[in-house]
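To the team - adenosine monophosphate complex, inputs and output below.
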Amino acid sequence: MGRVDLHTHTTASDGLLTPAELIRLARERGLTALAITDHDTVSGLPEAVQAAGEAGVELIPGIEISTSYQGQDVHLLGYYVDYTSRKFVEELKGLKEGRHKRNERIIERLNELGIPISMEKVVAKRPAEGNVGRPHIAQVLVDMGVVASVQEAFDLYLGKNGKAYVSLPRLSPQEGVKLILRHGGIPVLAHPGLYGNDQLIGQLLAEGLEGIEVYHPDHSLAEVAKYERLAQEYQLLITGGSDYHGEGENGPFHGDLGSQPVGIEILDRLKALFRKKRV
Ligand code: AMP
Ligand code: FE
Ligand code: FE
Ligand code: ZN
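Output:
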């Protein structure tokens, strides 16, 4: 009876724990296996592989690709992507540049609103050399006393209805699926309950989508039931994970590690899909 968490973040993106710290916590929590799925980067995976070997926890190398569809952020999880591929890392570098431009625009907007935030302050806030994201900007706004919490930073400034929201062209979800497939991964639509567009699932199926994330801390029980049904209808793999980002002063960001566990049989199905690609 193993427990598996298929969605977590580290300091390689906007998580608070280093890959090695996260693996150690996974072992303490009694997880059999853990997927690390940082936003648009695989840079945490070599350290994670090493730590997982030492801790006796199985690591599923992964990524969470940021895409955009009709102004809505859509995330795609990619399991077993070839993180050692130089070509893949090169393509991810392009995404990093887009992210950097977007961050600069957000900071400009905040400056226009009279908030003296700078890229230096944001970069200094990162615990490691990982990808900079809105959560880092949010944390600086909290430190500056502009807002009381990260949540308020998103509600007032950084979220879709916020005053400093900037949406630059990103990959489309279709391109995200293809990027993952091109580099040997299994594409899974992350937290579909957040998008308000279930037609997307059918559209991505045509591109080669192989699963949907059904169990996620932001899904209601009704959404879980709906996506279980849709997964069966479309013959997609059902996955789940906590989206753990570490623990702040107000508790864990998103879910707590291991809080949305899936059984070992789901990992077995994921591996079977992976093996099928390699023959
Ligand atoms: P980015 O990748 O820089 O666009 O930032 C997206 C990340 O911000 C997500 O992966 C979440 O970790 C975080 N995030 C997005 N919306 C919210 C929100 N309303 N409250 C807290 N964190 C959020
Ligand atoms: Fe995040
Ligand atoms: Fe996500
Ligand atoms: Zn995530």
